[in-house]
């Protein structure tokens, strides 16, 4: 027998050529057996010494060049480095198959119809690969398997060849569970809001013993301390964790009540409030109920308690009883209103105050209805459409001061003459009313402003260090020089003209010699303006400019401020006082 350039696999007689080979030799150059006998084993010669030493042909039931073995490959979703990891909250597990050679290389041939076995924690799950060699376990329930447990995955193909066992590490990803407790805390008492375990009932986990579960408050101590400072209903959050680091956030309802109260089947929150007399008496009982419920007034809330549940029944009249009977409503009086949920009763005190009217604050140019600007960089106007409800007879200065404190209103903006709180005018139906208190009709509260034209800033110009010259030279501002002129103009009818002058010229700081040359300004069209002791206009306000205009006199290219030097200057530092001025001109 002579075999060349072949793979060789052998099965002993007991296997009858089925299943995995007993021995495999890959890429054998040659093998030869010179003669055969019925007893003993003929001597084999081969380029592979191991084969030559161990090949016993009379012991074999099968010799083949098919040396490939099956391999089961979990999907890359389950591959973490070199480890196959399956989370215990997974309900499916899947992958593919292939064959490999002894050198570890994959053949690229799937194993259809192969039996796949997954063994875990004493359980066995089986499936069969499809025509493409893919396998899948569905409807797994492994939530009770602890993290760190190992299972194993194996496969037998249709030729009964068995894959290597693939270890599968279980990772605990199932969070613990628990039910929230209804916490009842006395006002000012932190006892029931200190231990997070008190907020959770019936806690359990699939793998971690209950006594080893970890309880932590998510709601800060500061927030819990704030809760007990005021009667009301709240919610705290507790993090319930297992030993694997999985966690659940439990949200537990909290009732903070007055210390003498015993809370059983109901609870009510709300506040005493004031309301306009006309609004109250014009409403029927259903309307009064809604006024008491509204956040603006009573902020009334009713709750039923069932077990550990706090059920909001505010909008169910049959469960949240409010008694409006037995009262003769009069202004400037306070009335107790009884509210009831099951066995719990609370009294809300309602004070009826004189009627309210609407006040419309306006900030305008004096003598006009034109709103002033609140942002001069984009000419954004003040919002004069806002309405504030105020009580008849209340002091207007007090109201405005409170609005300023509450940041509902701002007086005095950049670019306008100052106004004081008392400088308002009350306008009712287009006519001015001399009063210091809220009138009995809707009204405008008007502040009149005068606009201004002025500099926000003006630059000092620096032409840097230049050499005396034997010919006329021109110089632009150095990069570090100031160059921005900022002008504020909030006048309604006038534009500005920017003028500049050098009253004393430019002189040598040491000798007081006059600089021989000129400071000139070139506009964008190339027009040259010599800056001398007389004010010269170099620029005017353009229609597209905002009320705060920033002008760069550096210019670009040939435009902008330029220093011309003539022949004859002596060395030294030169300076001059530059006077910037504004002149108004009517808007076109």
TrEMBL record:
Keywords: Carboxypeptidase, Hydrolase, Protease. The keyword Hydrolase applies. GO terms for molecular function: carboxypeptidase activity. Residues 559-588 are annotated as: Disordered. This is Carboxypeptidase regulatory-like domain-containing protein. It comes from Vagococcus hydrophili. The lineage of its organism: Bacteria, Bacillati, Bacillota, Bacilli, Lactobacillales.
